[in-house]
Every structure is written in C-alpha cells, then in structure tokens.
Known about the structure:
The chain has a single domain, classed as Ferritin (Up-down Bundle). Helices cover 75% and strands 0% of the residues. The protein has helices at residues 10-40, 46-73, 82-88, 101-128, 132-157. α1 (10-40) crosses α3 (82-88), α1 (10-40) runs antiparallel to α4 (101-128) and α4 packs antiparallel against α5. The longest helix has 31 residues, at 10-40. The mean pLDDT is 95.
Amino acid sequence: MHPTKIDLSLEKRTALVKLLNDRLADLIDLQLQAKQAHWNVKGPNFIALHELFDGVSGEILPYIDDTAERIVTLGGTADGTLGGIAKRTKLAPYPLAAVAGKEHVEALSSALAAAAKLIRAAIDQSTELGDADTADLFTGVSRGLDKQLWFVEAHLQADR
Length: 160
C-alpha cells in the first residue's frame, strides 16, 4: 500500500482495496462478455442486439475506470491484468457456443445480474468499513448495471 493522508486506517484501506480489486475483475470480465456477445450474435435481431451489446460494453467502461482510480486513491494498486482478472472474477465463463440472439441475451443478462449482486454486497461491505465514498461509487455502478440489465432482459420479456 502506498501512503496517503486519507483518514481511513491502513487496515480498512487494505480491505477496501481487496474488495475494489475483486469487483474490478468482475467488471472487466463483464465488459469483455458484452463484447463477446457483440462480436458473435447472429439471427433476425442481429443489428439491434449487436448495437445493444456494444452499448452495454461502453456503459461498463467508466465503472471500470472509476473503480481502478478509487483503488489507487486509497493507496492500492489496481490489478487489471489478465491473470488478476482470471484469478478474481466471480462471474461464470461466457458460453462460447452461444450464437443465436436469445442465447446471448440469456448469457449476458445472467452475467449482468451476477455482477450487480456482487456490487450490491460490496456497497454493504464498504459501508461496514466506514467508507461512504466507495459505497457511493458502488451504488452508482449498481444503478447502472441494473439499467443495462433492464435493456437486455427486455428482449427476453417480449416473448411472454
């Protein structure tokens, strides 16, 4: 940990940095899963889903950057390396066999929901550690992921 004059103890900052790096890995994984869907979707709704998935990917990028910058602000080192992401992510692997639009919608909505659940838990954890700023960051991410989940799930709900 790097020195900082932020008024959180080293112990709390260390725990927050671990929490933030864990969620950073999930967010990077999620962004890549959205790109995977974007690149590989096929079917009659191709262009709509292709653009939707690209939009989801783009919406996640600022969350990744904000999370990494919060880590460094707290005196930590953001780990956005492939090895770090693979070790830390809690998201299920993206199904490479997915082709049809509905398969990608199902896979990406599941990933969004899983990431949002982890982020909501991180809100509580950072609050318990006495860091309202990190809790606020996670709250914004949670709200944004829920909105993206709504956009993606709408394609499943239309079939009902």
